[in-house]
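Case study B.
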Amino acid sequence: MKRAFLVIGLAVSALSLSAQEKGYLTGSFETNDHVYVADEKNRFEPDDDRFGTNNYLKLDYYNGNFSAGLQLEGYYPGLIGYPVELNKFALSNMYVNWKDEDFQITAGTFYDQFGSGLLFRSWEDRLLGLNNTLMGARFAYNWEDKIAFKALWGMPRLGMEFSDTQLRGADLSVSLSNIIGLDNIVLSLEGSVLNKFEKIGIDAQEAGGSPNSIGYSGRLNFDWNGLFVKGEYVDLGKKLVAMTPKRGNAQLVELGYNGRGIGVTVTGRRLEWMTQNISSKSLSTANLISYVPAMSTQYTYMLTTLHPYNPQLGDESTYMFNSGEIGGQVDAFYNFRRGTKIGGKRGMKVHANFSTYYTLAQEGSAKPGNLLFRDFSFDVEKQWTKEFKMVLLYSMQEYNPTYGNFKTTWLSNIVVADLLYKWTPTFSTRLELQYLATKEDKKDWMAALLEVNFAPHWSIWGSDMYNHGSTKMHYYNFGVSYTKGRTRLAAGYGRYKDGFICSGGVCRTIPQYTGANFSITTSF
Amino acid sequence: MRTFLLSLALLISAVAAAQVPSVTVENAKGETINTKSLLAEGTPMIVSFWSTSCKPCIRELDAIYDALPDWLEEVEFRVVAVSTDDSRLLAKAKSFAEGRGWGEDYTLLFDKNQDFMRAMNVSVVPHVFVIDGKGKIVYSHTSYVPGNELELFEAVKKCAK
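Model:
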């Protein structure tokens, strides 16, 4: 660790001294702290610590084409529900980077992704406790706007350390439309290759496993006056699943039209044995190389997020055999303009989504098996007067509680009203009323949230989610936040249900807990 | 550690105002562009980081959208809306923005692996910046409650003077 400080310190100071022009320093700091309180009703008894704190300090220095930076993280101890390997202190990121119009070269840690990330994605998501940054080197070159090439090598971070697994990859993107000189048309062909090296045991070698695996992807990107088609084929190469060699593969198609107040996207995707981990020994949520998100609506209202969809990447165990999933979704957005009959004086926005996913009936096929997840949602947003805005949402969600093992599915219907009223230009209130009706699981729920905002600095909120169908439990939460410029302070207290925290398309499970929380985020 | 602190002190002594860093992002057609190209027009701009699952972000961009015709009568500036949605929601974010009519008045950028967001040191969205004609960051604000856009417009007016 000392050596790392020394190297970065010397490199940065040497460069800052030799710089002709003045550079600038920028950064951010974030702390999230919880104090846990015993709550018999919530079946929660905190550890002796009764405390958790996640802290991040990030610093970046820019001078012309040059930049360098680092990130420090501290977990003393980590918050409940975060990956347990996040503990104590780490200098998690450190890099030096040169970028001009055509070239970029990075040494140290970096984030990147190939295509949609199905083959490779390195990213940070603090909500999930995920940071699989690569420690190594990357080179990128652009030939005008016609060809883009990048090559990288590195060891992904897992927990507080960099793993022994090595990744080598290259990505090429060729813009045919720019080479030919076509106007109004975007047509590009792209491809990537990724080599993963991870030491494996003799038993795994005897089962047909290899320390080296090679994956690749091919992609197409087309756009003509808002009409678009994107296609991606991914082959993860051969790997062991439950000591049997399997070939991971995925196909993704996105097409639609965007323009003139209309947006329509249709997505189709098939996955098979698509788990690609950093380490075969770790069970952490953050143990990821491939990014395989749920391609469905990411709901945000409390009762709509009780059963988020987790995609099935292919799983073989004593209890189940499921090689993957197939499915798709349709999203449609429309803006009834101001001054039209339906739009009225201030316009009206509508959105509908439908998604459906199935297990693969047979390995190697595209035939759908059991239903995994299906949802339909419709929302309408209307600014009635200058003061009053309303959002109404209806969502039908059907999910498979056995992850496709059996045919049984559970169905819930959810309605939400979100009402915002501006009493003065700087004083507003927002009320959410929600209801979930279901015959299964814990039966019906209701929820309400009230937010009182005093711009520009203060916001106060309180909410309650009540299961009146079965457990008679209240999950309440209230708090206050103060914001000034780039700094936000928030404090709250609440009882939280066990479930999932989802961000992007990755979910981590969280246990139930009760307690106070405090957070600061700032940047400079 | 001492070397590190020393170099930090050296750095701070050589600090100028923060600017727009050079990062590669996507435009609405899926072409890659460099964020430095935003400065070519030389007019002030509001850069707003948002995502489809961030309700306050959408409220803020809608509030700016509604006020824009009046604001533009007073000052010349542009609005750049940067979606931080990753590949799960990238296609949806494009349809969402067009479905709200933002495409006609805003420059839409898509930062699918959050490179621009990281380079601007944005930890949480919404986060807005006001950037002057030369690329210097003159104002920034995190989170949004109705009414915050008034302060934002004051910052734009000040920067255009």
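Helices of chain B lie at 2-13, 55-74, 90-99, 102-105, 115-119, 148-160. The remaining cases will be described in the next quarterly update.
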